[in-house]
Structures are given as C-alpha cells and as structure tokens.
Design brief:
Chain lengths: ~375, ~375
C-alpha cells in the first residue's frame, strides 16, 4: 500500500506543514474557542458534580480524584479535567437543532460520565500510571476502585438522561448506549492488536472509529436529540462527530509517539511502550522500503517479548525514527487532514444556524491543530 | 443487641427447624417451581444469546464461556447458567400487570445481563476463582476481558430495553439503571467492610439490600413496567423483590460459611476466606458472651493479617464454630424467615391474578428453602 493513498484509495495531496489544519485555522475567524470550551465546562460542571455526589463513599471521593476536584490526600484541587471538547459539542448540538444550549446539558454530562468510565477502565487494563499529569485512579486507590467507580459513572450516565422521563431522553440514552458498546468494542480491538504482529490500516481505523469516533459522534447528536431533532439530522451530526473523532485520534496517535510528556501528561513514547498498533505504526508497516522492513522485524520480535516496558529511551527512539522514515508520521498527519475535511462535509449537509455551524467547524479545526 | 431481636426491634420467635420456610413450603401446592424456572430460561435464552452475539470478538467467546454455553477450549457446553430466578420473576412480573409473559422478556434479558456484568466484575475484585463449578472468567481469559465483557453486558442491557423505543422501555431502563447503581454501591460497601473490624447488622443489611435486593426488586417490577403498570404498582412489586432479595442473601450468607462446596460451586468457608462481614458474622459479633468475645478477638487480628487465605481448614472451622455458638447462624436463619414474611406481605398488597400471586409466593418459598 502506498502511503500517499488514503484508506478509500483517494490520493491525499502532500502538505507542507505538520499541522494539518493550519490552513483552515481562520475559517471561522469570529469564534472564540476558549470561550466555547469554557461555556461547556461551566454549564456542565455543577450537574456533573451533583451526579458524582450521589455515589456511595468511598466512590464519591475516588471519582472526585479522577475528575481532578481533589488530590490524592482529599484536599481540594483545581485539577485539569481535560479539554472538555465533548461538553462544548453537546451544547452546540442542542443549538444546532434550534433548542437552547441548556437542553444539551444532561447529554453533555452523560457523555462526560461515559468518557470517564472508559478512562478509568482503560487505564487499568492498559496499565497506564499517569493521566492528566497525575497518578491514575488504580495507582492511587487500587484496581477494585477503578472498576467500581467506572461502573458507577456508566450507570450514572443512564440515570442522568433517563430521569428526564421524556421520549427524547429515551432516544438519547439509546444512542449513548450504542456508542458505549462501540467504545468497548474499540478497546477490545485495541488490546487484541497489541499482541498481533500485523494490523492493517483498515483494522486500525475501524478500532479508532469505535474507540474515539463513536462517543464524539454521540456528543454531537445527543443535544440535538434532546432538542427534538429527528434521526436523519442526528445521524448526519454523528457523521461529523465520527470523522472529527478519527481526526482527533490521528493527532492523538502522533502525540502518543512524539508528544511532549510535559504537554500530554503521559510517559515518553507511551504508545510504543504499550505496543499500540496506532496509525503511524500500521501505516509505516504497510509501506515499502528498508525502514518499513526493519521496523517490521523489530516489532515482530517485540510482540513476542515480555521486556518492552524495560526498553531504553534509545530503543524507543530508534523505533520512532523508523516509523517516521517509513512515512508513518506523515501519513497520519495527512489522515487527520482528510478526516477533518470529511467531517466538515458532513457538517455542511445539516441545515442549522450559520453561527452554530461556524462554531462546530472551529472546534473541528481546534481538535486537529491541538498540541496536547 | 440480643440475637433474638429483629433489625427493627421486633421479637423474632425461635424456630425449631433450620429451614426457615419449611412450614410455608405448601402455601402454593399447585405451583411447579421447576417448570416456572424452565419457562424463564427457555423464553429468555434465545434473546440473551442473540444479544451476546452482537459483541465483537473475542468478547462474544468470553461471554459465552461465562454463561456456560462453551467451555474454556471453546467447545459447546451445557453449562450451569444459574437458577434463573430473575428471568422467572420478570415474566411473572409482566403477568402480574395483566400483560402476556412475552412482554417481560426484554426485561428478563436486561436484568440477566446486568446480573452477569456484576458477577464478572465482582469475581475479579473479590479474587474469586470459581463460579458455577468452573474457573471464573478472569482466571481463564484474564482481568482485562473480565472488565471489558462486564462493561459490554451492562451496555447491552440498556440496548435491549431502549431499542423497544417505547415510553415504558424508558421507564424500565431508568429503574434498571437505578438498581444497577445500588448494586454497585453494595459491592463498594461489601469491599470496604472486609477491612473493617466492626460492621453493624444494620450496615450489613443495607449493603445486602443494595447488592442483592435492588436487582431482584427490579426483576419483579420490570415486566410490569413494560406491561404498562404505574409507578405505585411497580414500587410495591419492588418491595416484594427487595425483601425476597434479603431473604435470598441471608441464605447465601449461611451457604457462604456452611455450604457444601459440591452444591455451591465455591470453596469451603468461602466468605470467611474473604473476611466477608456477612450476616452470620455481624450478628455473632453483636451478641454477648464468651463466644462472641473470642470471635471478635480473632476477627480483629484477621482484619490486620495478610495471611487469611492461607489459613488451615481447622482455623476456618474454629471461626465458623464460634459464629454458631454466638448465635449468628440461628439469627440468620430467623432473618431469612422474617424477610420472607415481609416479602409476602408486600406481594399481597398488589392486586393481581390469584395464580400469578401464588407463583410469586412459591418462588419466594423456593428461594428461602434452597440448599444451593
């Protein structure tokens, strides 16, 4: 497979810049991304906290630690709760259907709860010790609490929606449940790929569509569904969210290898440490030439090794250099750009107020240019 | 606290027999319990299997192993899928509301999915190696699969209900979600009690009400809700199920100490091995006299020990003998009888066809006299 060919066979033009959306950053010049994210955070936070407060001790404390509201000693903290892209999307989703942003709040909270349920369980399954610059829940509070609190957040998500008691809430809960199952499918695929020698680009994209695309898609439809949008509109919004998720994940895959630990809050080479078959890796392996061949040999040996976590910085750096030399890094940059373009196309197939469209487009740009 | 006093202070009369419901066993002489359980199993199984078939590999295989449909090598098995009390209850629940049993099927399946989600996660958290006479999922397929497949079954439960697309399904899903969160609360309490020196009888009953009562209560209301029953009827049916669950759990607690491993499928003294603060233990500790005092000393030391799992049979037998001597065994037998009586009282507060009432009453008797 040529690295200059997209997954559906289209030719992806070479780009001069590593920032796929650099040339799109001024598409919606009037949009204040920081304010948009802040609105999502501010409107969602009290409802999210009230939901978490319902948990029986010590799960309320463990969840508060996970969300960054308290530190490991239980002292109030002003933690990094993540970028809050999903809440911002859920509120815009309601507005896209002509409803006030408030209508999207239970959807935003439910999506955040599911997202954090998956983080708690994934960190444990993956053995990740750091998240958002802090020790992960299973490291601080033990595996049982990570499992339990994850389960509890998932259940809370259903509660927050279904207690609205409306037909729309039932439809929203159904979409969220389906998205959650895709997310779990994606994690299952991700884990199974770690011990496989070969994973195709198509398999990787399917996994990432499940693991990242499905919930982002749901964030973009859930507000609209709560606001009364029909399934056709919801499906198109989900298409935008799905491709946005794939663009987001392509960037995440780049950061998982070449990201600055200071900025990502993860270890250096974190995806290589975990033998993740992420996009740069599978794209590099699918290439031709000596770098791809050498990388293939190394990773085939690594797949059988139980010693990968003890590799030196140099050993990881050598693998990263081969991935780049084989074109895996550049292909992934291009893939992010391609998914971004498809997302915008889907967005423009939905009839909505122009300023809402511009804000959704600006969020897509933000996701693709983000450095963390 | 006197062991001859119930949890709300009522005096519980002494009984001559260890089988709490022996004298009630012929209350509904016309009811064929085996046929009732078989109907629940037969009507639920195809829908349950179809739901599990939706899971991405290898989760479908892991779930099939858990349900006993295949063995660890993937060969078809005719496994012990449990007594299937919950499906039987969910179908009767629909009939109690005047709907055909079929209406309860999605509810029965959803409750079974949630029940098995909790078994998968609890076995991992508790380190239980055996369930239904077979190695548990985490022992055979590893902790990650136990977490993932549990998550997937929980999500499937929501899907199975919500794809009905009716207002009733939304109400049923809400009740199921609330019950699931109670179940998680109960597991959190159970875990936290293992390392505490003292747990009151009240705390233990609250924990068991969450861990066992809530989902059984939901099984008894979910069919009725799907059949159009109002919240008042659903709440009363849940009261019956809640107390039935507490009776069930009291028996389970007896079996957790004195049960025959051949019949229970668990290790001998399994609850003592895990330092479970189950009803016989907390009731014995709350008693007066030398046996209770000696038991208190032993368990206080055990709570600080990391060596409990390596105790000899004699050491566990000595603890069990002290629990019995202090009256904890007899009190728990009485408690099962008391909860059974309250359950029947709640049942009789609901207006329903007489033969359905008799079948629900007979199931309550069955649960309390069961030896496994």
């Amino acid at each position: 497979m040529s690295l200059r060919t997209g997954t559906r066979g289209e030719t992806v033009p070479p780009v001069p810049s590593a920032h796929a959306a650099e040339d799109t950053a001024d598409r919606a010049p009037g949009v204040d991304i920081a304010a948009l994210l802040e609105r999502g955070r501010t409107m969602t936070a009290p409802v999210l906290r009230a939901a978490v407060d319902r948990l029986a001790p010590p799960m309320d404390t463990v969840a508060s630690y996970h969300f960054g509201w308290i530190d490991a000693q239980g002292r109030p903290a002003d933690g990094d709760g993540g970028k809050a892209v999903r809440p911002a999307l859920a509120l815009l989703s309601a507005e896209a259907a002509g409803a006030p942003a408030e209508v999207g709040v239970p959807g935003a909270v439910a999506v955040e709860l599911v997202h954090n349920f998956s983080l708690l369980h994934d960190d444990l399954m993956d053995g990740d010790e750091q998240r958002r610059h802090r020790d992960t829940v299973w490291k601080v509070h033990g595996p049982a609490q990570a499992i339990l609190v994850g389960d509890a957040l998932f259940a809370l998500a259903g509660e927050v929606l279904l207690e609205l008691g409306t037909v729309e809430a039932g439809r929203a809960a159904r979409r969220l449940t389906v998205a959650t199952r895709k997310l779990i499918d994606g994690q299952a695929q991700d884990i199974s790929y770690e011990h496989r020698e070969r994973v195709t680009v198509e398999e990787c994209l399917e996994m990432e569509g499940n693991k990242t695309g499905a919930l982002l898609a749901c964030a973009v439809s859930i507000g609209a569904v709560l606001g009364g949008a029909d399934d056709r509109v919801a499906d198109r919004l989900e298409a935008y969210g799905h491709h946005l998720g794939l663009a987001f994940q392509a960037i995440d895959d780049l950061l998982g290898i070449w990201g600055d630990p200071e900025a990502t809050g993860k270890q250096t080479w974190s995806d290589l440490r975990q033998r993740k078959k992420s996009l740069p890796v599978v794209a590099a392996l699918a290439a031709e030439g000596p770098a791809a061949a050498r990388l293939g040999e190394l990773l085939a040996a690594d797949a059988k090794s139980s010693d990968v976590e003890n590799f030196s910085e140099e050993e990881f750096a050598a693998r990263a250099a081969l991935i780049e030399e084989a074109g895996g890094r550049e292909w992934t940059v291009q893939e992010a750009r391609r998914q971004h373009a498809v997302a915008i196309e889907a967005l423009d197939s939905v009839d909505m107020p122009g300023h809402i469209r511009d804000q959704l487009a600006a969020l897509a740009d933000f996701v693709v240019v983000r450095k963390r």
